[in-house]
Specification:
Chain lengths: 111, 111
């Protein structure tokens, strides 16, 4: 059973602070990892992709991957009210190209 | 650049009626295509994915079906809708092992 697990939240973070979102996955064959942001009533939009162990930074966002622990995280620095959304973690298995999503974490940035 | 078109944006259908949702992609060849459903307050559930014309993989046995009559066209169908088919239907495209990009979605309400 391939699963992607996330804390549903809500996670409340003061404006300007660092928001930390976590995700675990069950299939060790997972090769590609993604973070999406979804505003209420809208479709998900890609924030970050990460394929190898370590950190990947893009502006205020940093994705972290640890394949040995089957763990991927997203850090959002200098959180803004516009970051309030649901964040979806997704993983892909190279062998069948499926992309499986977690149920998402609701993030609320407090002004 | 690549674009994905999905229509209609909203749909209200009676129980027992048929369904046809269409998705087309522009600006790329031989994309992977996906259909997801997001029920109210829940995560993204992968329904079907396709790696080529006529190649459809079904993830969840139910009264829905999918077809890919052309390289960049993906259709989701049902012969008889159930109340439980209500949800937000999302089409996405990607290339093998990489991220997926979503259309705007169709919000289906079965009454």
């Amino acid at each position: 059973q391939k699963e992607v697990e996330q804390n549903s939240g809500p996670l409340s973070v003061p404006e300007g602070a660092i928001a930390s979102l976590n995700c675990t996955y069950s299939d060790r064959g997972s090769q590609s990892f993604f973070w999406y942001r979804q505003y209420s009533g809208k479709s998900p939009e890609l924030i970050m992709s990460i394929y190898s162990n370590g950190d990947k930074e893009d502006g205020r966002f940093t994705a972290q991957l640890n394949k040995a622990s089957q763990y991927v995280s997203l850090l959002i620095r200098d959180s803004q009210p516009s970051d309030s959304a649901t964040y979806l973690c997704a993983v892909s298995l190279d062998r069948d190209d499926k992309i499986i999503f977690g149920k998402g974490t609701r993030l609320h940035i407090l002004p | 650049s690549q674009t994905i078109h999905q229509w209609p944006a909203t749909l209200v259908q009676p129980v027992g009626s048929p369904l046809s949702l269409e998705c087309t992609v522009e600006g790329t060849s031989n994309p992977n295509l996906y259909w997801y459903r997001q029920a109210a307050g829940r995560g993204l559930q992968l329904l079907f994915y396709s790696v080529g014309i006529g190649q459809i993989s079904s993830e969840v046995p139910q009264n829905l079906s999918a077809s890919r009559p052309q390289d960049r066209q993906f259709i989701l169908s049902s012969k008889k809708l159930l109340l439980s088919d209500s949800g937000f239907y999302l089409c996405a495209w990607g290339t093998g092992g990489t991220e997926a990009f979503f259309g705007q979605g169709t919000r289906l309400t079965v009454v």
